[in-house]
Amino acid sequence: QVDLVESGGGSVxxxxxxxxxxxxxxxxxxxxxxxxxxxxxxxxxxxxxxxxSDGVTQYADSGKGRFTISEDKEKSTFYLQMNRLKxxxxxxxxxxxxxxxxxxxxxxxxxxxxxxxGTQVTVSS
Length: 125
Hints:
Helix content: under 10%
Oligomer: single chain
Number of helices: 0
Distance between the termini: 40 Å
């Protein structure tokens, strides 16, 4: 059982920055994938960024050049640094974990095993 707890969401003006955190507990897997997803009410869940345990990263076009995903293995936490935020980035953001996974270009279609509760990001124009 892996538990994920997100934090760092909030309200920010367009052009601002936020850093989301996802604290991971119970990870005993040798290799894994982690991802950040977002969803607006009534909308589809969208993959934002993914990272593998080997450090490989993937980004959706919407976040390339603005978002950075990273992992601090010592703290068992992974992050999503979001810069130059836009109103369209407003959504609930979720972190997710998949065990025994190698990150590939189709990472956002993987069946992630565990999900966090979500943290709201609101960007005002």
